[in-house]
Amino acid sequence: MLWQLWTKNQLTSEKWEPFLTANLWKTYVLPGVQGTLTAAAVSIVLALALGLALGVGRLAPIRPIRWVCTVIVEFFRAVPVLIMMIFAYFFYAAYDVFPSKHLALAGVITGLTLYNGSVIAEIVRAGVHSLPRGQSEAAASLGLSWWQTMRMIQLPQAITAMLPVLVSQLVVVLKDTAIGYQITFVEMVRQGTVIGSSYGNYLPALIVIAVLMISVNFALSALATRIERRLRRSTRGPAPMHAEAVEQEGAPGADVLTGQADK
């Protein structure tokens, strides 16, 4: 394989020299990195907030709230991320919700937030269900309301238990920003293809972009793992949930497992 790449002049120094110039990084690479990180950061924050609200709503004792949250979660888990991005993009464009230069970013954030928020809602629900049932019964015997029990007893432990799954899902959010190239969103993968078409070095360009994407994913995973360890040192909760419970990026909704790792 390497020999074939060499014979096709894909490994020659001329193909890699553009990456030694500041102009290429300022014009193509850095804007792509900025777009990816911006979309991922905003989507992660919004998806966590939405997922927490929907997850708690699915556990609410009031049936209408439970039903509404269930419909929302199941609907957005079943719709592909790209479809939601395209719909949001054209909806915002038709009604002038955002300036034209931010339409693609808004579409990407909307799609990622709705899909991953629904996935996180299932993770939250699974985390609460993994707790011993006696805790809620003991809280009720002490006179605590359902909301007080959820907020002070169950949610803190559930969040600790589901951290490995959440970390994996946050990485999925970052990778799914690449789907935004379909609505002209400026992100890392799209910029890599632009570099390849401009300089005739598709393979070196995609290799550089892949290294950058892997580095960003590794940094996010390392940061989240460090936060997870600090939280586990400060509190004792149930065994962590399996990270394999996370859905694949950009895929229709799959069931989130409720299993726990062996203590």
Automatic annotation (TrEMBL):
The chain crosses the membrane at residues 33-55, 67-91, 103-124, 158-183, 203-224. Belongs to the binding-protein-dependent transport system permease family. One of its GO terms (biological process) is amino acid transport. The keyword Repeat does not apply. NCBIfam families: HEQRo_perm_3TM (TIGR01726). This is Glutamate ABC transporter permease. PANTHER family: AMINO ACID ABC TRANSPORTER PERMEASE (PTHR30614:SF21), MEMBRANE COMPONENT OF AMINO ACID ABC TRANSPORTER (PTHR30614). InterPro entries: AA_ABC_transptr_permease_3TM, ArtM/GltK/GlnP/TcyL/YhdX-like, MetI-like, MetI-like_sf. Residues 33-224 form the ABC transmembrane type-1 domain. Residues 234-263 are annotated as: Disordered. One of its GO terms (cellular component) is ATP-binding cassette (ABC) transporter complex. It is found in: Cell membrane. SUPFAM superfamilies: MetI-like. Pfam families: BPD_transp_1. Keywords: Cell membrane, Membrane, Transmembrane, Transmembrane helix, Transport. It comes from the Bacteria. Its main location: membrane. One of its GO terms (molecular function) is transmembrane transporter activity. It comes from Mycolicibacterium smegmatis (strain ATCC 700084 / mc(2)155). It is a multi-pass membrane protein.
